[in-house]
């Protein structure tokens, strides 16, 4: 892409058209981990973790 688009969605606060990467998603029964990894050097640029809370009365 030579030029960034002129119109973006209202929820989009940041765009970067020079650095590219990919997402990694890891999940199990209690945890979800998302990472954005920069392709050029494999560094983690963004990450979040979500934990499932245990419901009362469930096993």
TrEMBL record:
The Purple acid phosphatase C-terminal domain sits at 5-47
This chain belongs to which protein, by name?
A: Purple acid phosphatase C-terminal domain-containing protein
| Species for this entry | Phytophthora nicotianae
């Amino acid at each position: 892409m030579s030029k960034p688009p002129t119109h973006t969605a209202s929820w989009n606060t940041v765009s970067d058209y020079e650095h590219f990467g990919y997402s990694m998603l890891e999940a199990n029964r209690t945890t979800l981990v998302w990472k954005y990894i920069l392709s050029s050097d494999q560094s983690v640029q963004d990450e979040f973790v979500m934990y499932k809370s245990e419901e009362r009365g469930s096993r």
